[in-house]
Write a structure and sequence with these properties.
With 388 residues, this protein is of the alpha/beta class. It is 44% helix and 15% strand. It is globular, with a radius of gyration of 21 Å. Bound molecules: 4'-deoxy-4'-aminopyridoxal-5'-phosphate.
């Protein structure tokens, strides 16, 4: 039904030149042009993750595969892992780590909140953990954790950290080397700005050392860094290599998207996400929409919002009729009570304003007592006062 704006927390709207790269003729995975491109992608990922000495891995797969690559290479049966659970994707990591035989201790926060730094510090001191696993932004709650402080707490104690950045990377500040984070992992389809299909991960030197000291190789051949590390090193050195056929067109598209990010500059990219998220939050407050994430925990990449009294998910149909696609709830405890708005990637103020306008129309169609324009006016005021 014509054009509509995809404002879910991934996949998102992609830039036309990124999509064009998906449509170009597929080169051989050992063609010189592709080797150049793959090498550049790996170097650019280091810059975007702020990990000058990190080792990037780019493989075909979704974000869950990136989560699994970290687990498969770093965790062995009996390893103790502290998991900070802030929602649905924390639950997923718990299930996954359990499959790898880890002894997982969970710090579970109430829906919309995150474990406090004091709680985490006490748990880390009590535990003799090999690793701590954290979701940077949980897509089911819109909660962002304090990745910088958490990484430091673990690093001071020599504990490895794995950050799931699938709903955060390139939308929220993350400085992997400066903060001492060992794994930052993500997928292509969110703020990285490329259609679904790529699992991306950057490992610190410490993480690679821990992998080298394993007692046994990972059970999964596809995920084993022993297979992928020589491939990544070869492409970066301008040489062909092969383990599993790389998704050539997706990597061409990633090259385009990463160059957009670096042309804008990561500081500017993060600031733009914050500015647009603040405008969205001003609108939600003016419309009486309560955030699932508590104050101070709200991510800049998405909003998770409770429906007002008397409104349910049928509202999203009216929003879609107004031209904007939003997402329903995901967290099992509150699934039917809230909806989610993604605001990440190559987004401009107009995209956010169009979304707020469509939410207003949906609320009115659902019978909510709001005044059309209140959310838009609040967002416009916020945009006018915040620096570009
Ligand atoms: N972690 C987080 C925080 C996510 O948001 C998602 C996807 N929504 C995943 C992991 C899993 O990624 P994928 O769906 O690409 O497997």
């Amino acid at each position: 039904m014509g054009r509509s704006l995809l404002m879910i927390p991934g996949p998102i709207e992609f830039e036309p030149d990124v999509l064009l790269a998906m449509a170009r003729k597929t080169d051989s995975h050992v063609a010189p042009d592709f080797i150049d491109c793959f090498g550049r992608v790996l170097r650019n990922l280091r810059e975007i993750f702020r990990a000058p000495n990190g080792q990037p891995f780019v493989v075909a797969g979704s974000g869950t595969l990136a989560m699994e690559m970290a687990a498969a290479n770093l965790i062995e049966a009996g390893d103790r892992v502290l998991l900070l659970n802030t929602g649905y994707f924390g639950d997923r990591y718990a299930t996954m780590l359990d499959r790898y035989g880890a002894e997982v201790t969970q710090l579970r926060a109430a829906v919309g909140s995150a474990p406090s730094l004091d709680e985490v510090e006490a748990a880390l001191d009590a535990g003799a953990y090999k690793a701590m696993v954290v979701t940077h932004v949980d897509t089911s709650t819109g909660v962002r954790t304090d990745a910088e402080a958490l990484a430091r707490l673990a690093r001071e104690r020599g504990i490895l950290t794995i950050f799931d950045g699938v709903c955060a990377t390139a939308g929220e500040r993350f400085e992997q080397a400066a903060w001492g984070a060992d794994i930052y992992l993500t997928a292509s389809q969110k703020a990285i700005g490329v259609p679904p299909g790529l699992a991306l991960l950057v490992a610190s030197e410490r993480a690679l050392d821990a992998w080298r000291r394993r007692r046994e190789p990972p059970r999964s051949l596809y995920l084993d860094w022993a297979e992928w590390l020589p491939v990544m090193e070869a492409y970066e050195a301008g040489r062909p290599s092969y383990f599993g056929t790389p998704p050539v067109n997706l990597i061409y598209a990633l090259d385009v998207s990463l160059r957009h990010l670096l042309d804008e500059g990561m500081e500017a990219v993060w600031a733009r996400h914050r500015r647009l998220a603040e405008a969205a939050r001003a609108a939600w407050a003016a419309l009486g929409l309560r955030s699932v994430a508590e104050p101070g925990h709200e991510a800049n990449t998405l909003s998770a919002l409770y429906y007002p009294d008397g409104v349910d998910s049928t509202m999203l149909k009216a929003v879609a009729e107004a031209g904007v696609i939003l997402a329903g709830g995901l967290h099992p405890d509150i699934k039917t009570r809230y909806f989610r708005v993604g605001h990440m990637g190559a987004l401009r103020a107009n995209d956010v304003l169009a979304t707020i306008g469509a939410v207003e129309q949906g609320l009115i169609a659902a019978g909510a007592a709001i005044s059309a324009g209140d959310g838009l006016a609040a967002a416009q005021r916020q945009l006018a006062t915040s620096k570009r």
